[in-house]
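Incident log, support desk, overnight shift.

02:14 A customer reports that sequence design results differ from what the structure should imply. Their input is reproduced verbatim below. On-call engineer (initials T.W.) acknowledged and began investigating.
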């Protein structure tokens, strides 16, 4: 297909395709002696992948790094795109429902509680993935996504409950010293839990604990199990990392 045909098919401009070619993001299968760009089916497949990443807010430079990485797995990427878009749809559906109720409320047709007025504004649903990627690279995050994505619904529920059990155990210990044997045993369970999903070094584990207190979204989420839990975990994770730095 020629560039104009591709542009018409996809709904983007010819200039955009020219730009993708110029920056090495999407190089046509062939460029004729007359300078006409010709795109193959493989080109179209890659263009679709680029647009999926773009829809999710990835900058072009980052998209290029991802798709040109020899370890890039298109099938895995598609599954991740799907999960991220489903989460976006879930949040949008919640906000739309709140808008509909607000319209009815403004007409005097229904009453709304203060809590209902803010339903759908879910700022705690997985806001941390990008930070984790930037701080420790993609490996641990992608590995965790892959493992969780392959689990059955019951498996995912069991995973969530296991996570909450550790949070509750740590919450019951937050009045003790982070260096105590009980606290270190419990935080060791958290370390083992995370490493069943990804691959966290002692240093990365310590850095994650620091993020629990540096980022108010982490703090708010964790402190649901008990006020001060995020700070307690941060300190306990630091001690654990120092004690296990040779591992």
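02:41 Re-run completed on a clean worker. Output:
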């Amino acid at each position: 297909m020629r560039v104009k045909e591709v542009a018409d098919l996809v709904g983007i401009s010819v200039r955009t395709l020219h730009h993708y070619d110029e920056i090495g993001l999407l190089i046509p299968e062939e460029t004729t002696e007359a300078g006409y760009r010709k795109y193959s089916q493989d080109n179209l497949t890659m263009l679709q992948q680029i647009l999926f990443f773009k829809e999710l807010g990835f900058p072009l430079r980052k998209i290029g790094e991802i798709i040109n990485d020899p370890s890039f797995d298109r099938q895995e990427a598609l599954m991740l795109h799907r999960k991220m878009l489903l989460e976006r749809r879930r949040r949008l559906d919640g906000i739309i429902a709140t808008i509909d109720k607000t319209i009815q409320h403004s007409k005097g047709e229904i009453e709304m509680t203060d809590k209902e007025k803010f339903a759908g504004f879910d700022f705690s649903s997985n806001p941390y993935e990008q930070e984790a990627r930037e701080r420790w690279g993609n490996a641990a995050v992608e590995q965790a996504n892959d493992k969780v994505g392959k689990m059955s619904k019951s498996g995912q529920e069991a995973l969530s409950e296991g996570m909450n059990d550790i949070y509750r155990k740590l919450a019951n210990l937050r009045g003790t010293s982070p260096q105590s044997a009980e606290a270190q045993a419990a935080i060791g369970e958290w370390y083992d839990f995370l490493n069943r999903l990804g691959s966290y070094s002692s240093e990365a584990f310590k850095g994650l604990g620091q993020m629990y207190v540096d980022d108010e979204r982490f703090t708010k989420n964790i402190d649901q199990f008990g006020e001060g839990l995020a700070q307690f975990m941060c300190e306990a994770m630091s001690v654990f990392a120092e004690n296990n730095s040779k591992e």
